């Protein structure tokens, strides 16, 4: 049988294309099996599209299973940017059970937080919040009462890595928030509606605080301050710094469509390289 297979492969005129298919199978299928079958992207930590509410929880769509437990009044709205959205009444939030987030899923070398928001007033409102076991407030993506937005990360012990306050916070209209940070690049950028409105070089070289043991929430700080009031759609949290192109892709198409286009592009690139090397 082995001799017959060898003879067939040697004599077949389509051998280069068959080899390409075999290589694509080796390089593209195997990595998918390396992750859970339903994980959308290895760097996507949290994803709430707010399309599925189940009892007292909002279903989390990254494939990691970090569903948000509703506290207060978080309801589904038909007025989302992409389909449905979540409406947060002041003081309400999603509890993500921070201490039980897996260590490998917590961003330390980079972080991006992206969401469509439509706030009911120009006030201090937390989009997402997490606090480490040493009481470090490690992240603040916020709409601010000053009329600006805020994007911040801190290291273990509370050292501020960056603190950007920029953009034009407006009430009663959809705005796209995207804060990105890459430790390797040493830079943080805040994008509002896909446009770079502020950036800052890292003040320290240390990583982001590496646990959420004092809690993680959507829509309300851990100490019950800065409540989010209004609509939120397509919240996604990554453990790397997204590029400007990626931010705009997510903003325009949504997370799943963006990932589908990205995967198609990677497959086309792989196929092109294989054909060129034959």
How would you sum up this structure in a few lines?
By secondary structure, the protein is an alpha+beta fold.
What do these coordinates show?
There is one protein chain. The protein is α+β, with helices and mostly antiparallel strands and 278 residues long. It has two domains: 1-34; 44-261, Sandwich (Jelly Rolls). 22% of the residues lie in helices and 33% in strands. The chain has four helices and 19 strands. The strands form three sheets. Strands 1, 5, 6, 8, 15, 16, 17 and 19 form an eight-stranded antiparallel sheet that branches. Strands 2-3-4-7-18-10-11 form a seven-stranded antiparallel sheet, with no helix packed on it. Strands 9-12-13-14 form a four-stranded antiparallel sheet, with no helix packed on it. It starts with a helix and ends with a helix.
What is the string of SSEs from the N terminus onward?
Answer: HHEEEEEEEEEEEEEEEEEEEHH
CATH-defined topology of the largest domain: Jelly Rolls
- CA-atom Rg in angstroms: 22 Å
Q: How many domains is the backbone divided into?
A: 2
How would you sum up the global shape? globular
**For the record, what CATH class of the largest domain applies?**
Mainly Beta
Query: How is the main sheet built?
Result: 8 strands, antiparallel
Overall mean confidence score, pLDDT: 87
By CATH, the architecture of the largest domain is named Sandwich
Content of β-strand = 25-35%
Structural class: alpha+beta
Measured distance between first and last alpha carbons: 27 Å
Tell me the helix content: 10-25%
Task: Please tally the helical runs, counting DSSP H or I stretches of 4 or more residues.
Answer: 4
What's the total number of strands? 19
Q: Which parts are unreliable, with pLDDT below 50 for 5 consecutive residues or more?
A: 1-36, 267-276
